[in-house]
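Assess this today:

___
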Amino acid sequence: MAFLTASSATDAAILSRCLRPISWLASSFGGSKKVDIREPMRKRFFMTDVVTVLLEENGKLLMGRRMLPPSAKRWEFLGGKIEKGESVVEAAAREIREEIGVKINSIEFVTIATSYHKEVGRRFRVFVVKAKIANGDTTIRDPEKIAELGWFPIADLPADSVEGLKKHQSLLVRVFEKPTPL
């Protein structure tokens, strides 16, 4: 991540927030302690904690077309709610296993964000991680939640993705760029 560069002032601001220490991120969201993505999460009454998992393979990201609000009929990265007493890493592994039946490894923190979904009247604190599929074939395990799966080039995500995703696509490209040797 040390080799990332920003192409605009907006991207530079987003990038600087992504690269700040996790303790700064925690204090930005009402906490005064460091957040360790391997430790169980504490319940927050004003937000629902969720994890989004970026699964990359050969320059493509795995996405699912969701069936339920707030992302109904739109493409979204896989993941879901962090259960009480569960860490971000545990939630990421569980959600991927439940949704597509594979094990993941190499889980790395990418960023944290908040979003408000008026369809469900809820605010979410979103922990974004990237990971690799360790073993298994991707198969939809719950067709009432996910209609289909698709692998999309990082630089060309589907137009009918969840709101705001296309806006941050350039940051996603940089997250998966290979570092340039000095």
Q: What stands out?
A: The longest helix spans residues 88-100. The chain has a mean pLDDT of 79.
